[in-house]
Amino acid sequence: MDQITKKKLVRNWFKTLQEVLCKEIEELEGNSNLFRYKNWERGKKSKEGGGQFRILENGKIFEKVGVNFSEVFGKFSKQFRNKIPGTSKNSKFWASGISVVMHMKNPHIPAMHFNTRYIYTSHGWFGGGMDITPCLKDKKLEKWFHAELKKSCDKHNKKYYKKYKKWCDEYFYLPHRNEPRGIGGIFFDYKKNNWEKDFSFVREVGITFTNIAREIILKKHKKNWTKKEKEIQYEKRGRYVEFNLLYDRGTKFGLQTGGNVDAILMSLPPLAKWK
Length: 275
Prior knowledge:
Elements: H1 3-29, E1 36-41, E2 49-57, E3 62-75, H2 78-81, E4 92-104, E5 111-120, E6 124-133, H3 139-154, H4 160-171, E7 173-174, E8 179-180, E9 185-191, H5 195-220, H6 227-246, H7 249-256, H8 261-264
Antiparallel strand pairs: 1-2, 2-3, 3-4, 4-5, 5-6, 6-9, 7-8
Helix pairs in contact: 1-5, 3-5
């Protein structure tokens, strides 16, 4: 299969998943046409792709949720190209992906994050993952969440879950706080062994996230919460902000490759506190 076909298949999947997730979110909210859409283009002088971010704010369940799609191409800067595989001789790249961040009104529902991407330089690879960040401890939820991830990973390779869970635990960590961002999940990058199998796994991750998010929300969205629990949520969101601005690869990649600032920073919660 040639790269043009691969890029088209990947792009179409990410765009389709964006539609599916937005419809799922609106169904949970009990209303349609709730998202605010914004299309954007990369490149001031020449068109180098772009994307669309969709944001829903102040819903019944979602305080803020962003569902972003992008497809960009061009050349990496000299400063950035050394950090990306396959760019030693040629700085050209193509990248497409979907990114989702959910910040909930109810502090009993964890913040949820998911993204998958495909990047092509002199060769192509997949990356992505998902994780959740509860502000209130729930060991039963944690056990169920990881069991679902393992079940999904095991369909493709029995070694994936242990490997990608470890990677996630190491990645979503705040060294200056000496604490994890949440309860982990799975994280993978530079996945390029077998394109068909890797793409199948990437699609599985997207479907699994959709199902997990729905299940968690349906279980918890009617739970009552206290003012103290809401304050705990605000403080936990502060940690989320710290990670995304200081350490997140996606944030750095987007800002250093001319991505849309609003789309990149949509991961930030609407309100956070520090004490």
